[in-house]
């Protein structure tokens, strides 16, 4: 587990995949989850008020974060040709339609001959109902393919939504089918994912630094100039081009996990063009990277406690009959793997880093808890195969040893969006006490995994900021109280920043809430999308 997954996706993105991987995998491929990915505290301390997952923010924007200023309403003349493109939709992928469109590599220099071709897919509105327009979907990440996600979940959307909207997914620049970034070969990525994230001496620290530097150098060599132009601001500007090309005056959008960061960025840049916008599993754009990683570590700790308490009630629980005993056994397993990796069915032993990644992957959805119980049972019996499958799902590794570009894009976007949380190992070491306090079982690893951006070849172009989106239509922000990857306090903070924010709370477990079989959440969101009022600010839905 290398990059905080709040903006990733895989799990949310992976969820759908996860379930199939495991029993075939896990990302937001799950209809429920979405993306992308970090917080502390026990389940009992977590509450609708934020509880222990609130971290340093307590649901309030970070002091000193600058406001995101809107762009001019009128399209600049230099960008007019991009907004004037004609989309050519062609049948593809079993009932969907596909197209491509161009955007400038650098919005500061449009029309200079350096364009990026982006891919999109849509499921046209069906039935005889009134067509409202297009509804853009994003599963999270950064790095989650919105094309793959849309094709997976389109059929699961409410019938009224499907008959009223074309469901549209586009892969942001650097992702999936849109000039995907690649960094390492399969074997080198295998080595990267296995690298020790809890260095005990200088040699292990040097090995971790070398792995991070190799990853960054590989991305630079493979991606070239694109690597410096995959920021969320650029992706949001691309989304406005697509909004115009599909013929919508305002953007209708459902974003999960990192997709909330993309959607909030769009709202901040184009507030007058905000239509029906839902941000589920919200990120807080006011946080710096170190605070975000620390808070996210606590979120995983909270989710682990929820899993452990549930496990303790079951006869097949492999880690004991209380959350405390479960934590001790998990720590003992990690220590054992640190000393000696476990054999697996593959020709790849399970390392401590991969075991932690596997456990974290299962925190994204309750539907994976039964698989985690089985994986921990077999690992404690000396077989690491099941935990390795969970880790492979997180990283997007196929059975053939190849990797999706998910984690490559994830790192590239994260490292541009915010300055690196840590510049060197000494900075990580100084932060370890805070991470251990916030997340006794996950904090140390998550602190070290955040070191990668310290060696990134491109300087960050973004900074912590608040999003007001003054004058926009109502924006629905959905937060789950025990969300591991996007702690509930982040949803509170984002809803509070937005001038027209409406906080919708799900009291429960897992990453994101919409389309996870909670009728209260689904009815509130679907009614809003179909032309109804936004839910009352502060509305709470329970399990």
Radius of gyration: 21 Å
- Please work out how many helical segments DSSP would assign: 18
Gross morphology is globular
- Percentage of residues in strands: 5-15%
The helix-and-strand class reads: alpha/beta
What fraction, in percent, of the residue positions are helical? 25-40%
As laid out across the biggest beta sheet, the strand order is: 2-3-4-6-5-7-8-10-11-12
Q: If you average the pLDDT, what whole number results?
A: 89
Low-confidence stretches: 1-58
Largest sheet: 10 strands, mixed
Number of beta-strand segments: 12
Distance between the termini: 29 Å
Reading the helices and strands in chain order gives HEHEEEEHHEHHHEHEHHHHHHHHEEHEHE
Element layout with pairings:
Layout: H1 10-22, E1 66-67, H2 80-83, E2 90-92, E3 96-104, E4 115-123, E5 133-138, H3 146-153, H4 159-164, E6 165-170, H5 186-194, H6 202-223, H7 232-245, E7 251-256, H8 258-269, E8 274-280, H9 289-312, H10 323-339, H11 352-362, H12 369-380, H13 385-395, H14 406-417, H15 425-438, H16 443-449, E9 465-466, E10 475-482, H17 488-497, E11 501-509, H18 519-529, E12 539-542
Parallel strand pairs: 1-9, 5-6, 5-7, 7-8, 8-10, 10-11, 11-12
Antiparallel strand pairs: 2-3, 3-4, 4-6
Helix pairs in contact: 1-13, 7-8, 9-10, 10-11, 11-13, 12-13, 15-16
């Amino acid at each position: 587990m290398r990059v905080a997954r709040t903006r990733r996706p895989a799990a949310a993105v992976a969820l759908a995949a996860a379930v199939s991987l495991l029993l075939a995998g896990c990302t937001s491929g799950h209809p429920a989850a979405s993306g992308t990915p970090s917080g502390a505290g026990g389940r009992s301390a977590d509450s609708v008020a934020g509880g222990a997952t609130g971290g340093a923010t307590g649901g309030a924007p970070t002091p000193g974060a600058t406001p995101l200023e809107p762009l001019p309403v009128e399209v600049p003349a230099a960008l007019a040709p991009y907004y004037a493109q004609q989309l050519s939709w062609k049948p593809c992928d079993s009932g969907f339609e596909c197209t491509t469109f161009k955007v400038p590599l650098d919005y500061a220099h449009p029309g200079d001959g350096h364009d990026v071709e982006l891919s999109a897919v849509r499921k046209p509105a069906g039935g005889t109902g009134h067509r409202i327009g297009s509804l853009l979907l994003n599963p999270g990440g950064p790095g989650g393919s919105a094309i793959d996600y849309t094709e997976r979940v389109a059929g699961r959307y409410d019938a009224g939504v499907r008959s009223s909207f074309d469901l549209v997914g586009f892969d942001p620049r650097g992702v999936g089918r849109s000039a995907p970034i690649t960094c390492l070969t399969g074997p080198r990525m295998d080595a990267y994912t296995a690298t020790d994230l809890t260095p005990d001496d200088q040699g292990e620290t040097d090995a971790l630094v070398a792995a991070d530097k190799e990853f960054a150098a590989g991305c630079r060599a493979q991606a070239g100039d694109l690597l410096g132009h995959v920021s969320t601001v650029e992706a949001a500007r691309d989304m406005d081009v697509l909004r115009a090309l599909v013929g919508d005056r305002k953007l209708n959008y459902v974003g999960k996990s990192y997709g909330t960061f993309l959607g909030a960025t769009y709202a901040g840049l184009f507030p007058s063009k905000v239509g029906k916008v839902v941000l589920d599993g919200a990120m807080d754009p006011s946080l710096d990277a170190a605070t975000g990683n620390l808070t996210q570590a606590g979120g995983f700790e909270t989710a682990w406690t929820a899993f452990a308490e549930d496990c303790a009630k079951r006869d097949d629980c492999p880690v004991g009959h209380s959350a405390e005993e479960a934590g001790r056994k998990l720590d003992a397993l990690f220590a054992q793997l640190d000393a000696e990796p476990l054999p697996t069915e593959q020709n790849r032993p399970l390392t401590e880093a991969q075991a932690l990644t596997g456990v974290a992957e299962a925190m994204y959805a309750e539907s994976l808890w039964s698989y985690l119980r089985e994986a921990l049972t077999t690992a404690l019996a000396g077989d690491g195969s099941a935990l390795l499958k969970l880790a492979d799902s997180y990283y997007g590794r196929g059975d053939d040893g190849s990797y999706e570009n998910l984690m490559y894009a994830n790192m590239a976007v994260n490292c541009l969006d915010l300055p690196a949380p840590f510049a060197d190992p000494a900075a990580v070491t100084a932060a370890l006490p805070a991470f251990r306090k916030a997340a006794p079982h996950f904090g140390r690893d998550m602190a070290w995994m955040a070191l990668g951006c310290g060696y990134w070849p491109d300087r960050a172009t973004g900074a912590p900021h608040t999003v007001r989106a003054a004058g926009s239509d109502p924006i629905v922000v959905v937060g789950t109280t025990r969300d591991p990857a996007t702690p509930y306090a982040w949803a509170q903070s984002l809803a509070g920043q937005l001038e027209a924010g409406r906080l919708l709370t799900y009291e429960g477990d897992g990453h994101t809430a919409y389309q996870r079989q909670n009728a209260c959440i689904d009815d509130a969101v679907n009614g809003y999308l179909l032309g109804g009022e936004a839910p009352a600010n502060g509305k709470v839905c329970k399990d």
